[in-house]
Structure formats: C-alpha cells, structure tokens
C-alpha cells in the first residue's frame, strides 16, 4: 500500500475524516469547559492538553509539509488541492491550538517545544532541498555525493543552532 492509496481511501470517506478531525477541537473545547477557572484546576489538565495538541499538530504539520512538497516539487495546481486531506488538518490544528491557548500557555504544556523544533527542522530541510533542486547543484558539480550530504547535514545543524539562539 502506498501513500497515494491511503489518501485515495481517506478521500473516499470524507465525512469520516471530517468527523475524526473535528473531534479534536471539540475535545479541546470540552476540556476548556471542564478544566475550571483557577490555575490549580487548569494545571491538572495539562497532560490532556498535551495529548490534544499532539493529536492536532501531527496531522496538521504533515498536511503543511505535504502541501509545501506538492506545490514546490510536484508543482501541483491549487485547483487540484484535496481540501479534506490538505487543508482540514491544518485548520484543525490552528483551531485546537487557539482553544488550548485560551486556557493554558504553550510553555506549560509538556514537551510542546519539541513540536515547534520539529516543524522548524522540516521547514529548513524542505527549503534546503528546494534550493538544491532549483540550483541544480548536484548536476553541475563533480563533488562526491558524500561531501554534499555532509554539507547538507552541517547546514541543518547550523539552522537548528541559529533557530535556538534566535528564539
């Protein structure tokens, strides 16, 4: 089974996909109602908020990187965009994170910073791959591929270090 097969199967059941993705912000809304108003009551629910954030962010970040890949590398037209698979997970992620932020700042959610670091690394990786694709550096040079790979990893480490120092 390929990724295309999975997407075609999910596209065949858009109502089920919609219900599954909408359950996440609905859960965040319900947790906001049940968690109380004082800091001590909200603090008890921080792991539930963490689970909701991860459940929302993983498909949302995957949809984001998939869209970037499809538009930059595959040159997919925006008219061919699958709304259920390419847009709805990102909207679910944004809605869930907005609901969570109303009750609990993100720095109190356990390991939430790992998600932003992961997204930063993926974005840097895609940007570097796009740059290599556009410059066609691999086609015009006689440098061994291992040197290019080492340079690529070094650039990733520099981007990660710079990102940590900036933020």
Describe the structure.
It is a single chain. With 167 residues, this protein is mainly α. It has helices at 3-12, 14-34, 39-43, 46-72, 83-103, 112-135, 137-140, 145-166. Helix 2 (14-34) packs antiparallel against helix 4 (46-72) and helix 2 (14-34) runs parallel beside helix 5. The mean pLDDT is 82.
Write a brief caption for the model:
This protein has 167 residues and is an all-alpha fold. Helix content is 80%, strand content 0%.
User: With helices defined by DSSP (H or I, 4 residues minimum), what is the helix count?
Assistant: 8
Using only C-alpha atoms, the radius of gyration works out to 20 Å
Order of helices and strands: HHHHHHHH
- On the 0-100 scale, what is the average pLDDT? 82
Coarse structural class: mainly alpha
| Quantity of strands, as a count | 0
| Helical percentage | over 70%
Instruction: Please give the largest β-sheet.
Output: none
Low-confidence stretches: none
Quote the distance from N terminus to C terminus.
Answer: 40 Å
Share of residues in strands: under 5%
Shape: flat
SSE arrangement:
Layout: H1 3-12, H2 14-34, H3 39-43, H4 46-72, H5 83-103, H6 112-135, H7 137-140, H8 145-166
Descriptive keywords:
8 helices, flat
